[in-house]
Amino acid sequence: MSTPALSGGTSVFSGFTPLCKGLAVVLVVGHIVVQVFPSAVTYLALIPARTIPFAWNLISAGYIEQSIYGVIVSTIGLLFIGKLLEPIWGSKEFFKFIFVVNFLTSVCIFITAIALYYITRLEIYLYMPLSGFYGVMSGFLVGIKQIIPDQELPLLRIKLKWLPSITLLFSVAVSFWTLETASYLPTVLFGTYMSWIYLRYWQRRVETKLKGDPSDDFAFSSFFPEFLRPIIDPIASIFHRMLCGRSDASNNAQDHALGGEPLPGSDPSEASRRRERGARALEERLAAKMMAAAQSAGESRTDAAENV
């Protein structure tokens, strides 16, 4: 009776991509290094006062988990969420997303820490070692929101499009109770925002050769409840003009040159098709796993009957 459960579990813990496995090894090895050699934190984690000579920690800090809980959560999240996102984006784009979001998150944290020091004159902002994969993990949730927003979590009946917002709200609430959790809050905040910036304006779509996702369903205000969106939209429009004002103007010019026809991918329906493809890919993957589990269970029952 235990064999079918084991076989079913094996199917769940299979299918991880080589890239995700490699990054998981990096996270585990990085954690082991800072545990065996505590002084390595000085060189690998983000310490704002030391970032100028040790600029590489803007990159390395994102792959160093200082706690055992952090490395477990990050490794599991990377393997399972990566198994969903990487086949849809492609390995190259998936790795690029991780690298860019990790680097930009570290840059934002560095700037914020320096600003807080000059405001408060507290040296803790300069010398606290900050690190962790939480920025990229938050970015993965934004990617899920973009691809399969209307899918629901089993049992909880919560649509996946609300995962980033719920994570942010939970992180802010918990930060009021524990100082250790508060140190991760900037990483989660900036990771969420930088990943949205990347997916909204910079990610190049293979099918259209264009950048970003201009659909209304992926607007910044979509992270907030409906009643707050009239307040959020005017503020978000400022950053929209800063980030893609010129590209909007060039797209409009090209539209006129094409006789008013919209460019491929500029229509929100294209974003909907992408989400449908993501949903189909997820459903096919789940169906394949269920079929494999059922076959394994059937084979195990047959073997048990023969042994009897």
Q: What key phrases describe this protein's structure?
A:
single chain, 308 residues, mainly alpha, Rhomboid-like fold, 12 helices, 69% helix, 0% strand, disordered N terminus
Word description of this protein:
There is one protein chain. This protein has helices spanning 2-12, 18-36, 41-44, 57-60, 68-89, 91-120, 124-127, 134-147, 163-175, 179-202, 229-257, 268-307. The chain has a single domain (2-307), classed as Rhomboid-like fold. With 308 residues, it is mainly α. The radius of gyration is 22 Å and the shape is globular. It holds the Pfam family DUF1751. This is Rhomboid-like protein 19. Its main location: membrane. One of its GO terms (biological process) is retrograde vesicle-mediated transport, Golgi to endoplasmic reticulum.
